[in-house]
Amino acid sequence: MIRSITKQKPLDEVLKSLGEMERVFIIGCGTCTTMAHTGGQAEVLAMQQKLVESRKVVTGFMVIPVACDNLTEEALQQNLPAMSESQALVIMSCAFGVQTVSRFLEIPVIPALDTLFIGKEMGPGLFQEVCLQCGECILGETGGICPVTSCHKGLVNGPCGGTQEGKCEVDRNKDCAWTLIYERLQKQGRLAAMRKFHPAKNYQVEPKPGKTIFELERS
C-alpha cells in the first residue's frame, strides 16, 4: 500500500505559525497520517490537549476519511459551525490534504506535519521510500526497481565499486540496489538495458517557483 509519509512538526513551530490566533479547529486524515500515526484520531486528540495546555481554545476536531480527495468538501460541511468560530485550522495531513482543505474554506490553514516522501508499507509502522517524484522515471530500464530511492548513493548508473557479495557499501545489511536490478533484468532477459547510460541527476535542492500543470492530449 502506497502512502504519503509524514512527521509531526515541533509544537513550537505550530504555535509560532498560529501566532495570536487563539481559537482553532483540528483536522486529521483517516488514511496516510492515520497509518503513519501522525494525524489519526489518537494524534488529533493529543494535539488538542497540547494546544489547550498552550492556552489555545479548540472549538472542535474531525478526522476526514481522505483529506485529499474530492469528498473533502462534503466532509467539511458537517463541522462548518465549529470551524466558523475558529481563527485557524490546524491540519494533520500531508501537504496535499492541507491544500485541498484550503480550497474550500477561507479560514487560515496551519500544517502540523511535514510531508517526507511517498512510501510503501513494509510492515507495521515500517515504511520504505519508493518514489522521490523526480520527474525523470527510468523504471523501464531498471526492471521496475528505482535506483534513486533504493540506492544509498542515488546512482542512476551502477553498481558502484563498493558493493560486495550483493550488499551495499554504505549499509552492509542492505541489498545493493544495482545487484537487485541486475538480477531482475537477467530473469527478464534484458541485461542489455544495463549498458544504457543515464545522465547524472542534479540532487541540489533548488527553488522551483510556479506550478506544473499536465493536461492529457484529447483525441
Decide which structural class fits the backbone.
alpha/beta
In the CATH hierarchy, the architecture of the largest domain is: 3-Layer(aba) Sandwich
User: Which CATH first-tier class of the largest domain would you pick?
Assistant: Alpha Beta
What is the 3D shape? Answer: elongated
Main sheet: strands, sense, barrel: 4 strands, parallel
Number of DSSP E strands: 7
Structural summary, described in words:
The two termini are 33 Å apart. The chain contains eight helices and seven strands; from the N terminus they run βαβααβααβαβββαα. With 219 residues, it is of the alpha/beta class. It folds into two domains: 2-116, Response regulator (Rossmann fold), CATH 3.40.50.2300; 132-195, no CATH class. Strand 4, helix 6 and strand 5 form a beta-alpha-beta unit.
What topology does this entry show?
Blueprint lengths: L1 E7 L2 H8 L4 E7 L2 H4 L5 H13 L3 E8 L7 H6 L2 H5 L3 E5 L2 H10 L4 E3 L1 E11 L2 E6 L15 H4 L26 H12 L31
Parallel strand pairs: 2-3, 2-4, 4-5
Antiparallel strand pairs: 1-6, 6-7
